[in-house]
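Our consortium's second objective concerns turning raw sequence data into structural hypotheses that experimental partners can test. To show how far this objective has progressed, the report includes one record in full. It was chosen at random from the queue rather than selected for favorable results. The single chain below, 232 residues long, was entered without modification.
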Amino acid sequence: MLNAVRRRLPLGVRADASELLDSGRLSLPEVEANLADLERLNRLPGGTAASMRGIGHLVAPSNGARILDVGTGRGDMPLAFASRGWDVVAVDANPVVLVVARRRLGGHGIDVVGADARALPFEDGAFDVAHASLLLHHLDPAAAVAALRELCRVARRGIVINDLRRGWLPLAASAASVALLGRSRVTRTDGLASARRAYTLDELDGLLAEAGLGRRWRSSAWMPRVVTAASA
């Protein structure tokens, strides 16, 4: 049976699959439900806390750092970052996601900007760290390299990437997490697609190198989600 599953879901090559969240056809309630699920998943190991550790490897704990969060989703990570005393700006390219994020973050003094990760409307070095969670696997390699270069351009200290890694263990863990915490049909569909679209850690390191970045720190490589801090 396992061999049959492997034939149906080969993981040696990154899947060229689409996700419902990227389709542009979801209603606001559907997007809200999906983002609420992702917020719950961000509370698991490898989520928000791991991203904060990654940022901490690039800035001093006492530093009131300026952080850019790209692909912000519902805005739960910017809220966590702000609780550390960091000055945060949130970015997303999806217009429906922006509605949710602005509603969530508007009363917390966190600016929410609509922009593509490959063309950020900020000056060079405008932030200390640029962070992206569960964004990179949505991009093909050329677009991913372009986004990494752009994140690096606007960040003085470096970038932090939090994403799934492709492999059988991450796929199984993603399936279990989505089954337990995913209440939305979008989450249940996109969760497995995301695991198949993710990059392996070797592939991620190759993308970083092509973007002119070197790895400075990485969370446990055995986790389904891995955080990588990198700088030029």
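The partners drew two points from this record. Strands lie at 66-70, 87-92, 111-114, 127-133, 155-164, 214-218, 225-231. The first strand starts at residue 66 and ends at 70. Both points have been shared with the crystallography group to help prioritize constructs.
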